[in-house]
Structures are given as C-alpha cells and as structure tokens.
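Hi Y.,

Following your request, here is the sequence exactly as I used it, all 162 residues.
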Amino acid sequence: MNLYLVAHGSAVSAEKDPERPLSEAGIAESSRLAQMVRSCGVRVQLLAHSSKTRSRQTAQILLPAVHPGGRLTLWESLDPDDSVGQALRAIKKERADLLLVGHEPSLAKIATRLLVPEKVPPLLSLSPGSLLWLQRQRTEEGKVWRLFGMFRAEALRAWERR
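Below is the corresponding structure, written out as tokens. Let me know if you'd prefer a different format.
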C-alpha cells in the first residue's frame, strides 16, 4: 500500500481572510505537485482532506492527477488541532493506495508514528505544497512502513524551471 501525505499549499494570512484559502503561491505549489505526481504515474483509490479550505483546495487541484473521475473525501481527523490517533487507525485499516492532504505538524506526527515503533518527536516536516511517500510492506517481521520518497515544494520549483 502506498500512502502519500501532502501538506496543503501556502495560504493567505488569517488577517487577509479568516478562512485562509490558498494564496497564488499555494495554487502554484499545488499545481506543480499535481504535475509531478501525474508524471510519476501516482494513482490512488482514496483522496482525503481536512475540513480547512486550503486543504480542500489543494486536494481539488491534485484530484485529476491522482484519482481521475474520483471524489474527494473529508477526514475530520486531519484538522490541524486533532490528535493523530484516529487518522492512524484509519490508515492502518486501509488496503488501497491513499493520499491525505492535511497540515503540519500533524502529517509529520503521522509519518513518524508509522515509521518508528516508539513514541518519538516528529522526525521530519513538510513545507507547504510538499509530499511524503510511505509504503507499507510485508517483511519477515510483519507489516512495516518505509519512507519511499519526498517531493519538497522548493525542489519542485527547480524541477519546473529545467
């Protein structure tokens, strides 16, 4: 199973708009990420997002690239202040490839809890418009999660210029 964790694109400030939709930069970040995952052949059976506008907008931009003809799913357990326990339980039950659009530091906590058996502080962080790719694999010890790749928004800007 592939799990893609995506940090929503950059958002406008709360002073400018309390809903904090994507900024022009956030739309560009999300669009670059959509182009990258499309070119890599990433496909998922479920694309879920938090209840925040910026997360839903990022998911809408990614949808045609990774789940053509599919629908978005709201996962309230991906909201910024939520405990990651509910999201972790849902991920562990899932069998199909999954892309989640959410917020930092929750995404880093989810990744760390999947990758490291002990409770430790987050090992990494995602900048807005970035993606972390994990795979659940069967080993002699059972099912384990492995870090497969990461696309940072900063690197995607350089990729686009080439």
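DSSP finds five helices and six strands in the chain.

Thanks again,
Q.
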